[in-house]
Amino acid sequence: MASISTAKRSSETKEFPNWLEMPDELMAKILQRLGTVEILKSSRKDILKTLTKKAVDLSCGELIDISILGFGNDELLDHIVLRQWVD
């Protein structure tokens, strides 16, 4: 009698990289190549706020337009406003 394999498929055990551990220089290069919409659509909801803060920080006060509808809160809005006044 043939045994039934209980091994999981590789797609079921795939781990996702922790994008927040990426070096700032590499994150900046990626963000420069991607548009804001692509960045936020491709990320998971639990890191949207962190990625948005990172994008705002990398804008160096030059942010023109941003939408935080659906995931933003007062803390994120405060961060965006305060970073626009940094020298």
From TrEMBL:
<protein>
    <recommendedName>
        <fullName>F-box domain-containing protein</fullName>
    </recommendedName>
</protein>
